[in-house]
Amino acid sequence: MGATSNQRLKIKKGDNVLVLSGKEKGKKGKVIATFPRDNLVKIEGVNIIKKHAKPTQKVKQGGIREMEAAIDVSKVKIICPACNEPTKITRKVEEGYRIRECKKCGEIVDK
To answer: 101: closest CA among 110, 8, 38?
Structure first.
């Protein structure tokens, strides 16, 4: 998958993103999980796979489950909540805290 790195992802759980490439190109969704070590993110309703599951004590009914698979973080762009457009993110330090800022409109992305 992705190369291991010590860099932080600029995308966090709960962010709205747009998929830029691949078979899911143009889809929008909310990030449900991030995997910084592998540079991957899971997006709600994007990259759906089918997984065959045996019955277990927790889930009595076995069968085919549909679930989201992770995609590379380089294939997504965050959607700014202020200008509602896909944008790049810059990082700034204000009052000792790191904040994420929209490159297009300059608004703070963190809630």
So the answer is: 110
Q: Where in the chain is the domain with CATH 2.30.30.30?
A: 1-55+62-79
Can you tell me the mean pLDDT for 57-71? 92
* Confidence band of 9 (pLDDT split at 50, 70, 90): confident
**pTM of the model as a whole:** 0.80
How would you label 7-16 residue by residue, b for 16+ Cβ within 10 Å and e otherwise? eebebeeebb
DSSP, collapsed to helix, strand or coil, labels residue 69 as coil
CATH of domain 1-55+62-79: 2.30.30.30
